[in-house]
Predict the 3D structure of the following.
Amino acid sequence: MIPRDSTLRVVRPTDNLKKIALMYSKALGFEMVKQFDDHDGFDGVVLGHPKHAYHLEFTHQRGVTVGQAPNNGHQLVFYIACSREWERACRSMIDEGFSVVENNNPYWEGVGKTFQDVDGYCLVLQNRDWAL
């Protein structure tokens, strides 16, 4: 079993490292936890909050093109219970360059909004508490 105090890092390649890092950090209020250049041919940035047990890492392998997301089913989901905070977060996503898109899965459209970044990957903001 993984210890409960472990940190989860989600890593995704991109062809737009600087733009993606700026979009996600400003829209979600993430801080740059770490940045690296030419680490064995990879550049990258790790974004997150110091007190949260998860990070988003975006990488770019020099000389390699990864292209767009295969479909909009590749997504991150954040649950935001407070309607006012959810509305503020939605505005922030748009202000930072995310596009509002219709999700392939109608479940996410009920009380959420789906945003797509410049790589075609999606992030869903749900206006509810997460519960099992």
